[in-house]
Every structure is written in C-alpha cells, then in structure tokens.
Amino acid sequence: MINGIIHDAVLLSAFLGFFFLTLFCLIPVGLGEVDHQTGAPKSPQLVKKALIAFGIACVLSAAFYALIALKILDL
After folding, report:
1. CA distance 61 to 4
2. How do the domains of the chain map onto residue ranges?
3. What is residue 49's predicted lDDT score, i.e. its pLDDT?
C-alpha cells in the first residue's frame, strides 16, 4: 500500500519536474515583437508553449516509467 503511494508520488513529481523544466526552457523561444512602452512581448503564445511542454513532459515521463518498469532504475 505505502509502496504504491510512494511510486505514484515519484512518478507525479517526475512529470511535474519535466513539465516545468521544459516550460521554462520554452518561454523565451520565439517571443517576436516587443511593445516598447512595457517591454513585454506582444504575442508570447503561452498556451501553445504549455501544450508543447506538456507533450514533451509526457514523452520524458513515459521514458522514465519504462526505465523503472524494465528495472534499469530502481525506486
């Protein structure tokens, strides 16, 4: 019982770590034109970048889970 909870917590925290790492790497990419008054980008496309980060995090999490399932990594 406790082992399953710890296993799930490790997988969730790995997914969240992968998600936020990729999101923060993607935020400065392709900012485009900047508003000269505020200094902020006119079209940051945060939703698109969050969806891309979600997809990358899913792939990385699946690879991490596969490494655990194949007993290459041990929790």
Report:
1. 17
2. 2-69
3. 95
